C-alpha cells in the first residue's frame, strides 16, 4: 500500500504511527531519493515482447507500459495524488493490514 505526503515531516509522522501499530514500513522517502532498484521492488513487473516492462497505474493498457520502475512508481504517485486532490512527493509504502492481505483480486486503478 502507498500513501503520498507533501513533506518529509508528514511522512515521518505516518511512519511512526504505522510502526507503533505493528505495520511494516518498506519505504518512507522523497520520490527523488528512491533508486531504480528500490522502485523495482514496489511496482508490478510486466513481461512484454521479451522485455521486462512495468505497470502504468494510470493507463493500464499494454500501450501504456513504463520502461523503468521509477516511471511506473511515478504513475502510482500521480494516481494517489488524483485521489487525494493534492501533490505529494514523499512516499510511505507499507504492508497491508488484515483482512486486506486476504484480497482475492488485485486492485485496479481507473484513470
Strand element count = 5
SSE string: EHEHEEHE
Task: Figure out the total of helices.
Answer: 3
Overall shape: it is: globular
| Terminal CA distance | 18 Å
Flag low-confidence runs.
99-104
Relative strand content = 15-25%
Residue share in helix: 25-40%
Please list the strands of the largest sheet in the order they lie side by side: 1-5-2
Compute the average pLDDT.
Answer: 84
What is the alpha-carbon Rg in Å?
Answer: 14 Å
Q: What can be said about the biggest beta sheet?
A: 3 strands, antiparallel
SSE class: alpha+beta
Question: Can you walk me through this structure?
Answer:
With about 110 residues, the chain is an alpha+beta fold. The protein has a domain at about 10-85. The protein has helices at about 10-20, 35-40, 70-85; strands spanning about 1-5, 25-30, 45-50, 50-55, 90-95. A 3-stranded antiparallel beta sheet has the order 1-5-2. Strands 3-4 form a two-stranded antiparallel ribbon. β3 and β4 form a beta hairpin.
List the helices and strands and how they pair.
Layout: E1 2-5, H1 8-20, E2 25-30, H2 36-40, E3 45-48, E4 51-54, H3 69-84, E5 90-94
Antiparallel strand pairs: 1-5, 2-5, 3-4
Amino acid at each position: 500500500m502507498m500513501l503520498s505526503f507533501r513533506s518529509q515531516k508528514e511522512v515521518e509522522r505516518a511512519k511512526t504511527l504505522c510502526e507503533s501499530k505493528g505495520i511494516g514500513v518498506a519505504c518512507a522517502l522523497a520520490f527523488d531519493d528512491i533508486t531504480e532498484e528500490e522502485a523495482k521492488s514496489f511496482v508490478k513487473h510486466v513481461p512484454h515482447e521479451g522485455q521486462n516492462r512495468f505497470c502504468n497505474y494510470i493507463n493500464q493498457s499494454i500501450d501504456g507500459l513504463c520502461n523503468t520502475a521509477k516511471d511506473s512508481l511515478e504513475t502510482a504517485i500521480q494516481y494517489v495524488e488524483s485521489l487525494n486532490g493534492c501533490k505529494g512527493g514523499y512516499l510511505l509504502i507499507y504492508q497491508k493490514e488484515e483482512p486486506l492481505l486476504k484480497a482475492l483480486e488485485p486492485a485496479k486503478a481507473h484513470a
